[in-house]
């Protein structure tokens, strides 16, 4: 199978202590740090972390910063986020209908890993061309809640998208985001997800390392 990447969502961390929260997650066994970039008050009605905060965090960690761009104009953020030290750059397909080829190429030219995300109401077929292109995305993020906020309920009906992607693309990184935790991981893992974003379940736990290892064991079982 494909290797598990467990990515705590820093949206659920204490923003006033972002550097120590990041280190706490990495020392608890996290592979990636999931960074929810909500900065335009347009794509989603929430305001979180942008390039200046990524730049500050990068001075304190060598961790893989898995950036999820919940913005309407992702192209505007490629330069700032690459300079800030982002590792992965995942844009939404709903706002990239006309320029996804340019987005992928620019993300790669800046040394970042391109990914594409889809909202719950977006059909999975919309991302197939991006995976099959000669210059493809490396990851598909299947949203399992409406984007914008942590702590929402996992939507199991999204697993049909994950199964379709896994059947077509045996080695693709397939990420799920929203409502993941010990109670929902088995459904997601058996559908074929290998990159697991988890915010409230990890940060709400007394021992985050236990939740992270439960998530990993389910994916790698
Ligand atoms: C929601 C974000 C998620 C969120 C997940 O828009 O994309 O990354 O932080 O949080 P939980 O795991 O609490 O659903
Ligand atoms: Zn996210």
TrEMBL record:
Keywords: Carbohydrate metabolism, Cobalt, Isomerase, Manganese, Metal-binding, Zinc
Chain positions recorded as substrate binding sites: 9, 68, 148-151, 179, 199-200
Cofactor binding, per record: Binds 1 divalent metal cation per subunit.
Name used for this protein in its record: Ribulose-phosphate 3-epimerase
A GO MF term: D-ribulose-phosphate 3-epimerase activity
Domain of life of the organism encoding this protein: Eukaryota
Catalytic activity: D-ribulose 5-phosphate = D-xylulose 5-phosphate
